[in-house]
Amino acid sequence: MKISGAKIVVETLIEQGCDTIFGYPGGQVIDLFDELYTARDRIKQILTAHEQGAAHAADGYARATGKVGVVIATSGPGATNLVTGIATAFLDSIPMVAITGNVSCDQIGRDSFQEVDIVGITMPITKHNFIVKDINELADTLRTAFKIAKSGRPGPVLVDIPKDVQTALCEFEANTQPVIPYPLTLASEKQLQMAADMINSCEKPYIYFGGGVITGKASEQVKALAEKIDAPMGCSLMGLSAIPHNEPHFLGMQGMHGHFASSMAKNEADLIIALGVRFSERATGNTEHIKRTHSIIHIDIDGAELNKNISADLTIRSDIKDSLERLLFMVEEKKHPQWLECIAQLKDEELKRTDSALKLARKKRSSRTELSPYDIVDTVSARADENTLIATDVGQHQMWTAQRYPFKKPRTFITSGGLGTMGYGLGAAIGASIATGRKTVLFTGDGSFGMDLNELATAVTQKIPVVIVVMNNNVLGMVRQWQTLFYDKRYSSTTFDRMTDFVKVAEAFGAKGGRASTLSELEKLADEAFSCDTPFIIDCMVDSDEMVLPMMPQGGSINDMITEIK
Amino acid sequence: MDQYVIGVIVANVSGVLSRVSGMFTRRGFNIDSLTVGETESSGFSRITIAFHGDEDIKERILQQLQKLHDVREVEVLDNKDTVIRELLLIKVRNKADVRQDIMTAVEIFRSKIVDYSPTSLTCELTGETSKIDAFIELLKPFGIMEMCRTGIVAIERGENCLKTVK
Questions:
Q1: Which CATH superfamily is A366-542 part of?
Q2: Å between A9 CA and nearest CA of chain B
Q3: Catalytic residue (choose from A11, A35, A51, A350)
Q4: What is the pLDDT of residues A105-120, one digit of tens each?
Q5: Same structural domain, B59 and B6
Q6: ipTM > 0.95 for the complex
Q7: Contacts of A274 by beta carbon, 8 Å cutoff, 6+ apart
Q8: What is the CATH number of the domain that holds B28?
Q9: Which of A94, A450, A494, B7 gets the highest tally of CB atoms within 10 A of its CB?
């Protein structure tokens, strides 16, 4: 029997295991939404306030579960509103399928109403994209889109479907199984033996891992390797949550705002074992200024990442889990007491610095607030459990959360790393919470929240149990921090002086909220927020001059690390 | 910096040239020459790209090209063992006092006159880039009215082939 293109899309989505779509209707996807209406008991549809929120929600859904997130938008502005969300997913290798409507084939290229070349626009920010002009190719194109999105290093794929293709009729037969990803590249024995030889003969190893360990489900193997070869480990922002925070060998995030001990250890190691990580400049600083004293083994599923940002001594293109499982048999059990002693000293030093910084911060609290960012994170984490999802927006609050939050399980940290998208958090939190049904916390700032608070409407409608912690410092804190340190305190366009009352915003959207400027107020509100099954905003007053430390200035190296402000 | 010539077999689908050339633009790699045309199988096109760079840049270009979904095969063509050709069409002023000089150049370079008018002469020349360059230099004093060149196509000698199907 022949069915419409719109129905083929819906049936193929179901066939591919899609249970939820995030989206926003419009002129060129009415047919598609009409079929979704018919299938509403088989696919949950989440109507967001803005297409960008829908894209971030699909991304959050994917990060929390590892499944492909699906977002649907109409042509023109609907499609362009997805762009930031797609780029966010692309930079962080998140599997996503974005479906857009377009004007009918005969109207394409005539600058028709709400027509844009979304395939052209998204070419550099998708793994691949398609425009389907022939209904006979529709089902297979969608299947390929899913296949590409979840294969190897995952990423977003866009499928643009003109309106007349949605209404055309075609035979369709559903497959019984979702598509299987392309086979993974695996390391050769020889490569792994070379890696093992380097590891066996080194004295100061450091494991540096990234988001690839979460995507590649290799947390256990990384942990086992660290134990077997007695190596400290640190991660990039994207690697956070892969390894429990209290794992003895784990030193936390390293890099521009990483933990002191973790960054120092990486610098002093004689061998860096890099796993599923791409040495972004935010994580490595300037590698040209300092003479390299360590060797690097770099294992990644994406061959294009090898020797891209740094040149490694040994590069292995491979699935991370498989290569580590095999490598574990080849490496010798080792103890590095001297090296670990050195690490312990670094950790001690870090602890002392953090403690004294906290004390100092508490002492010179302004009249406006007595809350320090770390106190806020601690108060929240005390009420969360290991399954609580932690989403963030982008800026100082994101770094404070990354530094301080005690992550225990993979896929519990939902943050925009590569693109650094302010306005990412609430949409992502909604998607992650819907995907898992779990309690979700969004750490955000007054700047970021101003970009995505429209999605409160969605959170309220969907009864999302999200605790929104706004670190409200009345400034664009991260940029202000740079202006303080490097621009002679010229605070150009970073002081808000807004009159926005986030508690009233909460009420206006039908959510709950309260304001905290003391620890006891915060504790009381946090208790209330965690027992609430609807969105709850805690508007936390934070001093405008709080800084994220330590900090390696952009383009600087470990030698330029700023650890305290006099 | 060396010059590299790579052959890229791509699926013959719309947008593929944008994907390939776009990758170069967006990652800051420069293209010296790019040509595209049909292959022995109708489903595939062959793109020949010449670029300057070091070993590192070459590797990065190859890796990035291989990641594109529509790219089936990428290979660096061995400079010494590859036939490289370019086609030039060049129009010069046809004046009595220089006509014989032009004819001599055409003959020596094994070029061909493909159009002749009272005021203009159009020559066709195939060859390696350096030969084309030399020919153009030679004709410059006679007054070049317009010219166009195709960019290079290249194919390896002997058994080595870029396969359209793996």
A1: Thiamin diphosphate (ThDP)-binding fold, Pyr/PP domains (3.40.50.970)
A2: 22
A3: A51
A4: 999 999 999 999 999 9
A5: yes
A6: no
A7: A208, A209, A210, A296, A297, A298, A299, A300, A312
A8: 3.30.70.260
A9: A94
